[in-house]
Amino acid sequence: MSDFRDRFGLQLTAASAALLAAGAGDFRVRFGIQLTDAAGELAAARRGLAGAPQRRPWALRIPRLGLGPPSRPLARVLGLSDFRVRFGIQLTRAAGELAAARRGPAGAPQRRPWALRAPRTLIPRLSRPIIVGLSLTAFAGTAVAALALWTPVLGDSRFGEAPPTISASAPPADQLAALAVLRRAQSPADRSGALTTGALRAINASSSGVRTNYIRVLAGGSSASGFVLVPVAERRASLSSPAAIPDALCLYAAQSGAFAVNCYTLAEVRAGAARDVAFGQVFGLAPDGVSAVTITAAGGVDVSAPVQNNFFDATLPAGVGGPTGSPTVTFSGGS
Q1: 3-state helix/strand/coil string of 255-280
Q2: Which residues lie closer than 8 Å to 312 by C-beta, 6 or more apart?
Q3: I want to staple 154 with a disulfide (CB 3.0 to 4.6 A). Which of 139, 163, 245, 263 is the partner?
Q4: d(C-alpha 193, C-alpha 152), whole Å
Q5: Exposed, middle or buried by CB within 10 Å (0-12, 13-18, 19+), for 129?
Q6: Residue predicted with more confidence, 127 or 9
Q7: Which helix (H) or strand (E) holds 252?
Q8: Residues 304, 294: contact at Cβ < 8 Å?
Q9: What's the mean pLDDT in 219-234?
Q10: Which residues are within 8 A (CB) of 327 and not within 5 positions of it... i.e. 6 or more apart?
Q11: How many other C-beta atoms are found inside a 10 Å radius of the C-beta of residue 109?
Q12: Are the beta carbons of 295 and 305 closer than 8 angstroms?
């Protein structure tokens, strides 16, 4: 972790998570959108494609940034500078506008016109826009990734019910802290394939606020059989769940054309109660730190299974046929 790029990457990851959890009214979201627009304009200008808008010389653009008429040395320096300097100036201006908007019109400090500042003091100040341009170029891309919402088709129209809604919100902080599978980035495999398609169809109107950016394939992603975690903002009361479950963690299981969906709370996951029995298997969720589970089935038969992706799955021994009542799950390797 001594390399500054590693530390910067962690900071950007944290910023991305914060942006994803922020509402549309948060100034950071608006700032991210402004940065993205500025980056797009710069990229288009650098490509030089036919039909690209003609950019005026910097000497003519400076008054639009609030600067006075530049001296010849300053105009020459700006004209020869790297595009990141120009990007940094744009970002500095956007940051100033956002700061003024957050302060409100009352009490905003009166700034002196830039034209009153000496050119020799202007040029050294460009070091700050350079730094801003370098760092926030990466930040702008992270903001876009955080704001992008996956909007697949949910529910099954054959049953004539309205599909569940989609939510851009992140799971609660305690769920993210307890389940590493939710903290990892969503992969293409989480969004494609017959298994994920089946899970999206099975999450019906009993759920609302499906957190599609946090859907994760837990096991068996190469076929239509396997297990998928689908976090939702709320699982409404139903025959399988008499009480509504806020911030539910729904586990989709499919095998040979049959499927089952059960939803749990984080407390149930921590207690070993987020488990189900189907298709001759016992499967469920486990929190971080648990490396294996022991499942006590009917007649006191113990079945052990490893935990991967916060998920365990064990095949019942021949002749057991299935637990009588709820199986008991014991964690090992942590809690």
Answers
A1: ECCEEEEEEECHHHHHHCCCEEEECC
A2: 283, 284, 285, 286, 292, 293, 305, 306, 329
A3: 163
A4: 13
A5: buried
A6: 9
A7: strand 245-255
A8: yes
A9: 91
A10: 275, 277, 282, 295, 296, 297
A11: 6
A12: yes
Q: What is the pLDDT of residues 86-132, one digit of tens each?
A: 666 666 666 666 655 555 555 444 554 444 444 444 444 444 544 44
Token duo for residue 264: 């749990």
For the segment 293-315, what is each residue's pLDDT rounded down to a tens digit?
Answer: 999 987 778 899 999 999 999 98
Tokens of 22: 């922020």
Confidence (pLDDT) at 298:
73
Q: Which two tokens stand for residue 269?
A: 């996951």
Cβ pair 279, 255 in contact under 8 A: yes
CA dist., res. 131 & res. 148, Å (int): 26
* Lowest pLDDT segment from 22-31, 247-256, 323-332: 22-31
CA-closest candidate to residue 198, choices 161, 155, 241: 155
Q: Which two tokens stand for residue 236?
A: 């409404």
Q: Token pair for residue 251?
A: 């586990």
Q: Which residue has the tokens 């040395």?
A: 73
66 DSSP 8-state letter: T
Going by the DSSP 8-state scheme, the letter that residue 107 receives in this structure is T
Beta strands 292-296 and 275-278: pairing type?
A: unpaired
Query: What tokens were used for 311?
Result: 């998920």
Which residue would you say has higher pLDDT here, 202 or 68?
Answer: 202
Give the ranges where the chain is alpha helix by DSSP (H).
4-21, 27-47, 58-61, 72-80, 83-103, 119-122, 127-147, 173-178, 180-183, 188-191, 194-202, 266-271
- Residues ≥6 apart with Cβ < 8 Å to 18: 28
> 232 with 211: CB under 8 angstroms?
yes
Backbone angles phi, psi at 200, to 5 degrees: -65, -35
Residue ranges covered by each domain of the chain: 4-147, 157-332
DSSP for 182-204, please give it.
HHSPPPHHHH-SHHHHHHHHHS-
Amino acid identity at 260: A
